[in-house]
Amino acid sequence: QVQLVESGGGLVQPGGSLRLSCVASGFTLSDYDIAWFRQAPGKEREGVSYISRSAVSTYYVDSVKGRFTASRDNAKNTVYLQLDSLKPADTAVYYCAARPTYSASWYLDSSYVYWGQGTQVTVSS
Fold first, then answer.
1. Using CA atoms, how far apart are residues 118 and 90, in angstroms rounded to an integer?
2. By the 8 A CB rule, do 35 and 96 touch?
3. Average per-residue pLDDT in the chain?
4. What span, in angstroms and rounded, lies between the C-alpha atoms of 60 and 6?
5. Are 4 and 22 in contact (CB under 8 A)?
C-alpha cells in the first residue's frame, strides 16, 4: 500500500521553527521527486518547495526562500521541510507529494501521483 505520512506540524509563535517530516511506504522513495504544497483557508493550494530524487536540485516559492529548507534521507524513506522564521502568512495545511517523472514546472500539483494527508501548521502569537 502506497502511503505518504506527514508529521511535525503544530502551533508556533511568529519567528519560531518547525520541522516537517514525510515518510514514504509502499514505493521506492529514491525513484521520486518530492514537493511540499500548502493550502490556507480560502486559498488555492500552492507549491512551497521541491527536492529532486537525488537531492541535487531544490526549489522554493519566493515567499519562503531563505526561511524553508528541504532535505531528504532516501535510506530512511523520509523527506523533511525545515521551517524557520515562521510568519502568520505561513499558516496552512502542508502536504508532501511524489512524482516519478521530471517536468520543469515543479509547482504544478497535477504532475504528482502520491499525496499525504497533510499536517497543520499554525503561526500565531
1. 14
2. yes
3. 96
4. 19
5. yes
